[in-house]
Automatic annotation (TrEMBL):
The lineage of its organism: Bacteria, Bacillati, Bacillota, Bacilli, Bacillales. It is found in: Cytoplasm. The keyword Nucleotide-binding does not apply. Pfam families: TACO1_YebC_N (PF20772), Transcrip_reg (PF01709). Keywords: Cytoplasm, DNA-binding, Transcription, Transcription regulation. Coiled coil: none annotated. Belongs to the TACO1 family. YeeN subfamily. This is Probable transcriptional regulatory protein AN964_11550. InterPro entries: Integrase-like_N (IPR017856), TACO1_YebC-like_2nd/3rd_dom (IPR048300), TACO1_YebC_N (IPR049083), Transcrip_reg_TACO1-like (IPR002876), Transcrip_reg_TACO1-like_dom3 (IPR026564), Transcrip_reg_TACO1_YeeN (IPR026562), YebC-like (IPR029072). Its main location: cytoplasm.
Amino acid sequence: MGRKWNNIKDKKASKDANTSRIYAKFGREIYVVAKQGEPDPEANQALKFVLERAKTYNVPKHIIDRAIEKAKGGSDESYDELRYEGFGPNGSMVIVDALTNNVNRTAADVRAAFGKNGGNMGVSGSVAYMFDSTAVIGVEGKSEEEALELLMEADVDVRDIIEEDDSVIVYADPDQFNAVQEAFKQAGITEFSVAEITMMAQNEVTLDDEAKAKFEKLIDALEDLDDVQQVYHNVDLGE
């Protein structure tokens, strides 16, 4: 199943860090989940998950605190959670998750990003059935065998475990996310190189150089949209 997860994450973090766009996106997401539930992560599992993911991207504490305080302050700012599905060159598939306070603007922006970069929008359900919602947790300092033994002792079910660079990446059902983390924390591991629930393609496709370059421009255009939180796809982009 492995997708060189750390390489994908590092590339995205490096790209976003130059503009601090990733911080703004996390700030918006933290505000939304804190407002939907309790602003206390111990009482709001969705908020706890977002904060764990924010840590792996080194989101500054003041960004997190400001978003939570905004939710506590009763701001009437509201966002809609949207999912778009579409196609890129040569059978590639894309899922786009967005948080927006202007649905018409976001729909137009996403459609334009597809249209200008060799893709086209699909209807709801046209792509998502080819992806599985998956918890991805990465730790350092453990071998694949050690991680598997640790998780088996904690009676945690996982889909797959692979070694990647200096990390062990665990893939599991989304409802096992907290159980996997807790098992590692009980073993003294409190830092995670990856901690996400993502959409993993059931099958990846490989594009030729020309199509791959066009596809990467499409993904960049989508990720550059302020309202877009996450972009998932089924293309093997290599390292």
